[in-house]
Amino acid sequence: MKNLEHIGIAVKDFAAANTLFTKLLNAEPYKIEEVASEGVNTSFFRMGEAKIELLEGLTPDSAITKFLEKKGEGIHHLAFEVEDIYAEMERLRAEGFTLLNEQPKRGADNKLVCFVHPKTANGVLVELCQEIK
Ligand SMILES: CC[C@@H](C(=O)O)C(=O)SCCNC(=O)CCNC(=O)[C@H](O)C(C)(C)COP(=O)(O)OP(=O)(O)OC[C@H]1O[C@@H](n2cnc3c(N)ncnc32)[C@H](O)[C@@H]1OP(=O)(O)O
Ligand SMILES: [Co+2]
């Protein structure tokens, strides 16, 4: 694990949340990107080395839509940057964590991603991400 890459925050009203975070951080999002495979719209704000990722659900079966229905708005996941996502997935499997993907998949912001089930990580949904070079 190299560093905290981003904190994912689930929001109900994407436009309003972007306005609020722009005021809060005194910075505009550097990227807004829809990821159809996850059924989400995302926006990214730089925060030093790390980023804030705002997520809105676009489909009823999206993880974000379900999370908002059950838990409401707030922190949804922590994402850690890794050098070699395949090696890190293998290491975490061997340590007994449950991975939610057999293989890494394409995420937002030019990353390969994989998720660790929150039930095996003290209630925290963890995302591994590796930059696609
Ligand atoms: C845009 C791409 C990417 C990026 O590049 O950054 C993203 O960030 S995408 C983010 C959205 N995608 C995902 O979250 C994918 C991974 N998530 C999942 O596969 C599922 O959400 C899940 C974690 C397996 C849960 O799905 P499911 O079992 O269908 O939902 P339930 O509502 O039944 O939840 C079961 C259980 O887990 C708890 N839960 C759910 N989400 C979270 C969460 N984010 N953090 C902590 N805990 C979570 C939920 O409360 C349930 O607990 P119990 O009620 O105690 O059983
Ligand atoms: Co994320």
Care to describe what's here?
With 133 residues, the chain is of the alpha+beta class. The chain has a single domain (3-131), classed as 2,3-Dihydroxybiphenyl 1,2-Dioxygenase, domain 1 (Roll). Helix content is 23%, strand content 38%. The protein is built from three helices and eight strands, in the order E-H-E-E-E-H-E-H-E-E-E. It has helices at 14-25, 63-70, 85-94; strands spanning 3-10, 31-35, 40-47, 50-57, 74-81, 105-106, 111-116, 126-131. It has an eight-stranded mixed sheet. A hairpin with a 4-residue loop joins strand 2 and strand 3. The longest helix is centred in the first third of the chain and has 12 residues, at 14-25. The model has no long low-confidence stretch (mean pLDDT 97). Bound molecules: ligand LP2KCY5N and cobalt (II) ion. The site of ligand LP2KCY5N has 26 residues, from strand 3, strand 4, helix 2, strand 5 and strand 7. Ligand LP2KCY5N is lined by residues 8, 35, 38, 40, 42, 53, 55, 63-64, 66-67, 70, 76-77, 79, 100, 107-108, 111, 113, 115, 117-118, 123, 125, 127.
